[in-house]
Amino acid sequence: MWKFGVKTHFIAELQSLSEGERVKIAGWVYRKSELGGIVFIRLRDSTGVVQVVVKEGEASKEDVERARSAGIEASIVVEGRVKRDPRSPTGIELVASRVTVVGESPDFPIKPDSGEEFLLDNRHLHIRTTRMRNALMIRREVLRATEEWFIKNGFVRVEGPTFVGAAVEGGATLFEVPYFNRKAYLTQSSQFYLEAAIFSFENVYTIQPSFRAEKSRTRRHLTEFWHAEAEMAWADLNGMMDVVESLIRYIAEKVVERAGHILESLGRRFELPEGRFPRITYDEALEIAKRKGVLIEWGEDFGTEAERAISLEFDLPVFVTRYPKKAKAFYHKPDPERPDVVLCADLLAPEGIGEIVGGGQRIESLEELLSRINEEGLNPRDYEWYLDLRRYGSVPHSGFGLGIERTIRWITALPHIRDAIPFPRTPTRLYP
Ligand code: NSS
Q1: Which pLDDT score is estimated for 298?
Q2: Where does residue 333 fall: left (phi above 0), alpha (psi -120 to 50 degrees), or beta otherwise?
Q3: Could you tell me if 247 and 146 are in contact, meaning their C-beta atoms sit under 8 angstroms apart?
Q4: Does the pLDDT of residue 100 top 90, yes or no?
Q5: What is the dihedral of CA 397, 323, 229, 242, to 10 degrees?
């Protein structure tokens, strides 16, 4: 890790040092107590926490006073010597010879009993807490593994724009923004742009934010979420599901391998059981939901409750395929054997989490796509360029979008999706 001259070691590096070695560390006051004139500071940096002992004799009276006055979350630099101490949780302590307060912190607002809304209003400070840092480290590993899988498998990264002119996933959740003397929207998905890019690179992906004006305030909706999307030329629905399954397994494996201890600190035992992910149809899923008392008319999309009921039937993520045409966006390819359903698949994560991936096979014929656009009452002129992709060298292709925060929520079992992102955006949250 980079060091910038202020410190000689990160806290995690102290473990390997021997008794008496002199070091200089820097960080933030995590806890503080005093006993018989000796000040004990639990100091944290990005790598860990160590107990610092500040007492007269080893340090000056002024140093002890500075340590005593440092508030929770004050930033300090400590010079001292390593002391091996079997009683301390890390087996090591630092006996200070010098304490410098760099930034004071008179009364840090985050307290153990702070309420949820207060913590959200103070998110910029809350992200310093152990729980939030753990959640964000899992996020880091999920994003890293996702990108890694795509790179290892030869996918080319291509970003879509954030300002777009038309809906991908239906008008109801579009965010409208003024764009000079016109209207623009914030992208709901980069799918159409990835579809354009398959003609150059065949297998493509992106990881970027998508926006949905979801008025529903649920534990699994954000208005701004990170979307890992992929599009594959020549892939059919099954090929697409094979890609998703491999990607999800890789993410689960790497997060456990690299951050299993962090999941444990979050109180989470996570393990993805062996075996292929089951693939069931919408009709079969509907039966499961019915059996569990969630009544849905054939043709409706599943809501949170139905997805929860269905996913609780399986200990692995389950693909639900072939939804009714009218429940899905216009670009999905109707099943040639049964044109009232489409060749799509949603992946529902277990433990009641529900949908984390949505995707499927796309309509590749110009006539069919045009007729679906008209059927849905959309304006074909808004989709001219998208239609071109069917005019010039069209190929069968499939793709999907994976919600990064929903995946994190599943892996961590965090109760709310907002803790899977540093600065969540929901209908009522635009600050900080
Ligand atoms: O609407 S999706 O099901 N599908 C698409 O957007 C496709 N155009 C993706 C594609 O094929 N390239 O959204 C995909 C995933 C969904 O399964 C969720 O995991 C996530 O995106 N998603 C969300 N996460 C958090 N909050 C909200 N509001 C949200 N909406 C979708």
Answers
A1: 98
A2: beta
A3: yes
A4: yes
A5: -70
Predicted confidence band at 96 (pLDDT cuts at 50, 70, 90)? very high
Looking at residue 79, its pLDDT comes to 98
Nearest to 323, CA basis, from 349, 348, 305 = 348
Among protein residues, the one with the nearest Cα to ligand 1's atom 11 is 400
pLDDT for 286:
98
Question: How far is it, in rounded angstroms, from Cα 152 to Cα 148?
Answer: 6
Query: Does 120-420 carry CATH code 3.40.640.10?
Result: no
Q: Which of 227, 240, 323, 386 to mutate to test the pocket of ligand 1 (most atoms within 8 A of CB)?
A: 227
Task: Give the DSSP letter of residue 13.
Answer: G
Counting from 1 in the atom list of ligand 1, the atom nearest the Cα of 229 is 12
Give the E-state strand segments of 127-241 in sequence order. 156-157, 163-164, 176-179, 182-186, 203-211, 224-233
List the residue whose alpha carbon is closest to atom 18 of ligand 1: 403
Pocket of ligand 1 (CB under 6 A): 168-169, 189, 191, 212, 214, 221-222, 225, 227, 229, 355-359, 399-401, 403, 405-406
Strands 318-321 and 279-281: parallel
Q: Say whether domain 11-103 belongs to CATH 2.40.50.140.
A: yes
| pTM of full prediction above 0.90 | yes
Judged by DSSP in three states, 202 sits in: coil
Task: Note whether 153 and 204 are within 8 A (CB).
Answer: no
CA of residue 256 to ligand 1 center, whole Å: 24
At a CB cut-off of 8 Å and minimum separation 6, what does 216 contact?
A: none
What are the residue ranges spanned by the domains of the chain? 11-103, 120-420
Across 187-328, the runs of DSSP E, i.e. the strands, are 203-211, 224-233, 279-281, 318-321
**C-alpha 224 to ligand 1 mean position (Å):** 11
